[in-house]
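Work Package 4 report. The design task specified in the project plan requires that, given a folded chain encoded as structure tokens, an amino acid be chosen for each position. We show below one input record used in the internal validation round.
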């Protein structure tokens, strides 16, 4: 399911759920966490059914009967087992009169309301996962049976079976933002977009070891890392050890729920002891193979003395005011991320754009960072990537294990003009765009084989799509390795032909069949558009880097050495290095065109004056 479809699903779920809240006597705060718990349970059930199908596909039988699945089968697949009484379809299909159904809880107590049954389901789920103990909401008796039954029905939406990735964090923040907008944006805390998380994970390439997210929110970094490691043929729970800190209790609960539903285990601490400014809650300074985070930006009034006592400041404190407070904590976070790394560790994090060029003590810390040689990659990100905020940001990457050849260099990427528009308020990087940006990093690191593998992936993708699209009688789409310009030209010609055929067919379609036929043709053309998009991304890449040689591309990327960075006042702003992309000559003579525009303007002014005179005369004649 794409981003646009997810947003549509969120809006539909919210509209239905909020309509019920409005008809009840519950406040938003009372309503919030139980609703999020139902979303968790629905998604957990979706994943449960998926894994159950995998287990049953080659399940042995005894006496002609397939052996039933057990909790141990799910544990072997790092998945969450759901007892029958905790499965969503069981809850949805309960009789209206719970008291008359003779249901008993796990402790043997009779249950007389649907709220008690759902509470019991949450308790049963917690028993399947040590890290969920005490995390799931169990206050469903505040709902009437009618309201809770309707909520269960609303979230019994088959579309949720198609949503991948950090769905809980995504839908959670949407709902939380609707319930209490001030909470969603408190202290700059907001959901990390999936494409930014993927970018961080892809560049760090986690394989094994300790991963810390000291501002873990709903756990998106852990989920994407788990996917990355599992897709590489390893087991995330075996290869990785996940640690998280999260000051906001709600977010920590969502993180644990999110990890559990994705079959991941980890240690997450929350509350005051998890305030990263003042506590290294897991004692991990100098111990981490990977650090990933999206910390709150521009936090002020952080107690400097408490920060000093907590350590993890290898470059000293940022600027401190007369009240002994750090006025902007961005460089506290940056220092912490660096301090957590072991001798070969890598860090990737989101940071306010202003931090790449801030002055005062920030600049001194930034200089010391550059002088370590461990600043690896800097990426500028444009507006509208965040789900509830419209602001630019930067992605920072540290690598203490850089090879000697790159130790004095930093790769700068300005990706502010490279993205896909989802809608008026949201941009993202598609998977192919993420791979293209990742390819720049591969070539900078000398990993040409990964670049060539990406070209092969483009070739296979376009070949598969061409096979599906081709009309063998009248049109053939030629896919030649590397010849992506020809592929694009052929696809665009094919689309144009399909559009003409669509117009021809629709002329003769009966009125009652026209809507259906038009939808069918639009779906076909949409498939061509998808192939065209892939071809354009392939062409974007090979036009810049050919068969796999890194080079600086004006307006996009540049490798700068330490002397260049020093000459620019230790700035780490990509735009200061990559410059501006050359503008293609459109063949228009500038002076001639300006003369034409000026003449057109004078004509319009004269017409305007005539119109005003006509209006004035008409008003005089009317006596106005």
């Amino acid at each position: 399911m794409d981003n646009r479809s997810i947003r549509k699903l969120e809006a539909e779920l919210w509209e239905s759920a909020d309509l019920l809240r409005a008809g009840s006597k519950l406040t938003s705060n009372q309503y919030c966490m139980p609703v999020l718990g139902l979303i968790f349970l629905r998604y957990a059930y979706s994943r449960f059914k998926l894994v159950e199908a995998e287990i049953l596909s080659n399940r042995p039988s005894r006496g002609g009967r397939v052996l039933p699945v057990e909790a141990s089968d799910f544990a072997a697949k790092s998945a969450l087992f759901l007892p029958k009484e905790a499965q969503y379809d069981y809850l949805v299909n309960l009789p209206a009169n719970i008291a008359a159904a003779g249901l008993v809880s796990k402790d043997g107590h009779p249950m007389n309301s649907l709220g008690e049954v759902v509470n019991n389901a949450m308790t049963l789920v917690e028993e399947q996962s040590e890290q969920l103990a005490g995390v799931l909401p169990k206050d469903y008796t505040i709902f009437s049976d009618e309201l809770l039954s309707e909520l269960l029905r609303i979230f019994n939406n088959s579309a949720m079976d198609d949503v991948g990735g950090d769905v809980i964090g995504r839908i959670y923040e949407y709902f939380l933002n609707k319930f209490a907008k001030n909470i969603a944006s408190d202290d700059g805390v907001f959901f990390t977009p999936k494409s930014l998380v993927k970018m961080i994970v892809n560049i760090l390439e986690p394989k094994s070891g300790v991963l810390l997210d000291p501002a873990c929110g709903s756990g998106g970094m852990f989920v994407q890392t788990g996917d990355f490691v599992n897709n590489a043929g390893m087991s995330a729970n075996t290869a990785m050890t996940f640690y998280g800190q999260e000051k906001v209790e709600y977010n920590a609960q969502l993180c644990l729920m999110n990890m559990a539903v994705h079959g991941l285990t980890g240690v997450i601490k929350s509350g005051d002891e998890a305030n990263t400014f003042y506590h290294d809650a897991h004692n991990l300074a100098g111990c981490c193979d990977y650090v990933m985070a999206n910390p709150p930006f521009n936090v002020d009034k952080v107690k400097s003395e408490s920060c000093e006592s907590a350590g993890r400041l290898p470059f000293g404190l940022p600027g401190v005011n007369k009240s002994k407070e750090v006025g902007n904590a961005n460089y506290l976070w940056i220092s912490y991320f660096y301090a957590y790394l072991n001798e070969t560790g890598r860090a990737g994090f989101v940071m306010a754009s202003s931090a790449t060029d801030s002055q005062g003590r920030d600049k001194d810390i930034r200089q010391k960072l550059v002088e370590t040689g461990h600043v690896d990659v800097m990426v500028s990100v444009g507006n509208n990537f965040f789900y509830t905020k419209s602001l630019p940001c930067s992605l920072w990457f540290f690598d203490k294990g850089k090879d000697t050849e790159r130790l004095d260099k930093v790769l700068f990427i300005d990706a502010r003009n490279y993205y896909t528009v989802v809608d008026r308020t949201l941009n993202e990087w598609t998977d192919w765009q993420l791979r293209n940006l990742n390819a720049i990093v591969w070539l900078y690191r000398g990993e040409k084989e990964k670049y060539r593998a990406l070209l092969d992936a483009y070739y296979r993708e376009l070949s598969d799509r061409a096979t599906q699209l081709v009309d063998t009688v009248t049109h053939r789409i030629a896919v030649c390795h590397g010849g992506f310009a020809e592929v694009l030209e052929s696809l665009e010609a094919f689309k144009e032909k399909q559009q003409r055929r669509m117009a021809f067919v629709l002329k003769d379609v009966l009125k009652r069949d026209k809507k259906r036929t038009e939808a069918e043709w639009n779906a076909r053309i949409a498939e061509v558009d998808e192939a065209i998009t892939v071809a354009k991304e392939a062409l974007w890449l090979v036009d810049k880097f050919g068969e796999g040689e890194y080079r600086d591309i004006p307006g996009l990327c540049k490798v700068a050495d330490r002397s260049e960075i020093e000459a620019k006042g230790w700035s780490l702003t990509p735009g200061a290095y990559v410059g501006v992309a050359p503008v293609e000559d459109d063949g228009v003579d500038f002076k001639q065109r300006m003369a034409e525009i000026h003449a057109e303007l004078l004509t319009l002014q004269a017409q305007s004056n005539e119109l005003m005179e006509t209006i004035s005369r008409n008003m005089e004649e009317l006596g106005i």
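DSSP finds 22 helices and 15 strands in the chain. Validation will be extended to a larger panel in the next phase.
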